[in-house]
Amino acid sequence: MKVLDAFLVITLSILCGAQKIEVHNGVSVLTQENFKDFISSRDYVLVDFYAPWCGQCQDLEPEYAMVAQTLALSESPVELGKVDVTEEESLADDHNIKVIPTLVLFKKGKTRAEYTGELVAEKIVEWLTRRCGPPAQDLQGVENVQALIEEFDVVVIGFFKDQSSKNAEVFLEFADSTFSVPFGITSDEDSFAEYSVKNGDIVLFKKFDDRKVKFGGELNVKGLQTFLREESRPLISEFEPDLLETDGVRGFVLLFLDKLSEESSRIEDEARSVAKLFKQDIMFVSVDTEIGANQAALDMLNVKDEDVPTMRIAKPARNIKRFVPESNDLTAESIQKFVEDYLSGKIKPQFLGADLPEDWKKGFVYTLVSSNFESVVFDTEKDVLVEFHKTSCGYCKLLHPILEQVGEYFKRDTHVIVAKIDISVNEIDDDNFQSLPALKLYLRGDKKVITYKGAITVEAIANFIKNPNAGDIGNEDKSQEEEAEEDEDYVDGMKDEL
């Protein structure tokens, strides 16, 4: 006990490159300045993202110190670090930390896994031992293979008589680069017979849908990664907000169902048969509309209670784009057609917006809403200058009278339209706004779009419309980072002028 007490109170400093890092109770204090070097220069690092005011974080602190001591005594390759998210907000954002405490394991600088078990030392050490061992467990005997399959929802096992063969090396390379599921490898002949496999088979075992799936593609790491991504998730997943952030899919089919109704099972069965056809591109998600926490999904996809049962497709984007079927006929045929039309681009996203005013053309500046935006700005015979603004934006309001004068300047020019749209109440396909107000010119003909970066005067804006390619005004070829930096400078200058 005296050794532990001494260990817990010691605060040390270590060198990482040229930087000195504080160490509290065996845990390195990580900051924006030292984080990258620290995790990339070590085989394994477990990082605790915490906040000093968080009660659960405070409870974890002595357990985490106990983990550090246990790892040190066993000469484990794992080191521990911690990040105070109240001081290092950018690090928390970089690693998508949404709750605290969050424990993230890194391997040679890359994220390996997030710990989701009990926050007690024994369980954390047990998890680390399993995660930081060989890329695949060497399974001796049928009972060990069966134990691994039963322990996890998804496991991948390679059946190789010669574990030093080239194919086995590819499998182990894949296992070493993949952190989402556990892996096993076996040369046990009884296991080959028990699971009806042959030498070289790679099998994914899961507790849902098809319980046993053999890899059948060309054997390489990329092919195995695709196989795992497609087969490790259910054909239909239960809705959770984080699901819509899943990488590697082109869209999400959301089924809005009252799970207490008799038809919900029939609809899911029909959808499951379609999901098999599109699992490379589309993720199917079931939303139980009777669960209060799922109301956010209904609101996001504009689904009303009277619409249920129904479906929507959500397209991953900076702002989720929603696609609506022609009817609520939820059969395998209609679901398949909806997905095919979405993938082929035959259907357009639904944009919500304000009602179109009867006098939207009155005055020198047209008023645009979601429903008339595209028909106006993509008129191939017109140059269209659009001001994008929000009701809450004070500087946007100051720009309006200048825009009116620009509109008056071009009142006799039949090839120029000056317009404005309030994007706080109107959704549009263009959501690339680093700041507001923003002025964009949609050129006639090919409808090339140029963002205005000039002075906020009637003369300067009018000259831009007449000769948009003069000078270094456009930024259509610049990166988002460059555009964001210029936008910040531009808005600061605009504020001074206004």
TrEMBL record:
Origin species, per record, is Photinus pyralis (Common eastern firefly)
The Swiss-Prot or TrEMBL record annotates one GO molecular function as:
protein disulfide isomerase activity
**The protein's enzyme class:** isomerase
Q: Which cysteines are joined by disulfide bonds?
A: 54-57, 393-396
Q: What is catalyzed by this enzyme?
A: Catalyzes the rearrangement of -S-S- bonds in proteins
Transmembrane domains' residue ranges: none
Record's GO cellular component terms: endoplasmic reticulum lumen
Where it sits in the cell: the answer is: Endoplasmic reticulum lumen
tRNA-binding as a keyword?
no
Keywords (alphabetical) are: Disulfide bond, Endoplasmic reticulum, Isomerase, Redox-active center, Repeat, Signal
Q: Which Gene3D superfamilies match?
A: Glutaredoxin
Query: Which ranges carry the Thioredoxin domain?
Result: 1-133, 342-470
Similarity field? Belongs to the protein disulfide isomerase family.
The UniProt annotation puts the region (Disordered) at: 470-498
Q: Which NCBIfam families match?
A: ER_PDI_fam
Which parts of the chain are coiled coil?
A: none
Spell out the protein name for this chain.
protein disulfide-isomerase
Comp. bias regions, Acidic residues: 479-491
Give the signal peptide as a residue range, or say none if absent.
Answer: 1-18
GO process terms (BP)? protein folding; response to endoplasmic reticulum stress
EC number(s) recorded for this UniProt protein: 5.3.4.1
